[in-house]
Amino acid sequence: MDYPEKLVIEPTTRCNFKCDMCVKQSPGCDIPEGDIDDAVFSMCDSLFPQVSSVVFTGIGEPLLHPNLETYLSGAENRMPEGSVRGFQTNGKLLTPQRAVSLLEFGMNQICISVDTVQPDMFDRVRQGGRLSDINQAFDALERARKRVPNRPLQVGIECVLMKKNVSQLPLLVDWAAEREVDFIIVTHLTAYKKAVEDQIAYLNNSQDAYEMFESLKQKADLKGLDITRYDKILWKVNKSEKEIDIYNQVAAFKDAALKKDLYVNLFHLLTEVPGEYDRLCRVFDRAEEKAKAHGIKIKLPGIRPLAHRRCPFMEEKVMFVSRQGDVSPCYFLWHQYTQMRAGYTKYIRPTVFGNIRQTPPEKIWQNTAYRSFREKVLKYDYPNCHAWCETRCDYVLDDPFYQDCFINDIPCADCHWNLGLLNCLI
Ligand code: SF4
Ligand code: SF4
Ligand code: SF4
Q1: What is the mean pLDDT of residues 375-403?
Q2: CA-to-CA distance for 76 and 83, rounded, in angstroms?
Q3: For the whole model, what pTM was predicted?
Q4: 390 falls in which pLDDT band (50, 70, 90)?
Q5: Closest CA to 325 of 23, 20, 43
Q6: Helices (H), 79-180
Q7: Cβ–ligand 1 contact at 61 (below 6 Å)
Q8: Band of the pLDDT at 260, cuts 50, 70, 90?
Q9: Would 91 disulfide with which of 137, 164, 199, 249, CB 3.0-4.6 Å?
């Protein structure tokens, strides 16, 4: 019988912070605030013996749920040996007493959000929190580990990378090492509102496309052609001889890329800041070296999107259960909100395959619609809006989404999770 291997359960959609990068800041966000109730949680019982990890995290602060400990222990009692029970937290409510009780009741993994070690920047980005609160949270964990030594605990931090904090990443690794952190998850920013779109730090081209374009540029340079003028001459009616040559060179380049199954986005290629990739590589390499020296596991996102997409949630057989009991396939599709795409507003509505109040979760996992959704996602046979299109067509901006330009009914063509740019605790 087929079962999910990992479970993400949303304890609450309430939060004591108002972070700049939170999905709750998106203008189209419709995530009513409330907690999961015990009846919804207990419906997950049948899955616990089957899964290797349960992450008690949603769009809210898990420590606000008064029964979190009960849920942890309920899961622990039914899960196989070696399984993981953890959650992502902003850390503000992690007192020494709470840290001990969480550990005693079955938590063996905790991940605290820390994007910067600069107190001013932290306070601005994570509104409602202060870096000093986070220091106290780590102190509480250190003491709890000592008080309950027979309960092993993996402590992590999650960092959202933005242009303004990217260069601090190696420092953050040192900071984490001082607090005996075991793992670091780094993810790029998702632009839930226009005001933060310019903080996205990843580059838009795949490495293969960029290298191929650089080689075209060099060859064109030798012929005295400035390929970077392509976007200016593209729609010119009367092109000069040189401009026709540029046009033809780019057309041949696009054909050659297509033959290699490599999709190129000229707008992205023309706007990449020279040297930026090397600069980001140096920051990531330094962070990795430091993590290795400190014995910390670090998971970094791509600096560039993957040329061959991979959906972490489908590949790792993750099931998402919202606080109301709705079952969704992934982080991208479990709530209603908006995201920015190439300057446009994209509306995302939840994809739901059933509600565990009415149907046992394993039956939902095995139902035809959910199975067929997973199969389609894993074929990766859908367009790649980010790689191919400078703008977004009505297909992917339509609300609700119903199909892409290949007539697929799954909304994966314009998702950034499958591009290797985003990471989370799963
Ligand atoms: S702590 Fe998490 S849920 Fe709360 S506002 Fe920040 S990003 Fe959103
Ligand atoms: S769905 Fe629209 S935006 Fe996406 S690749 Fe197709 S035409 Fe481009
Ligand atoms: S929308 Fe993205 S994250 Fe969700 S199933 Fe599709 S590829 Fe995976």
Answers
A1: 93
A2: 8
A3: 0.95
A4: confident
A5: 43
A6: 96-104, 119-125, 131-147, 169-178
A7: yes
A8: confident
A9: 137
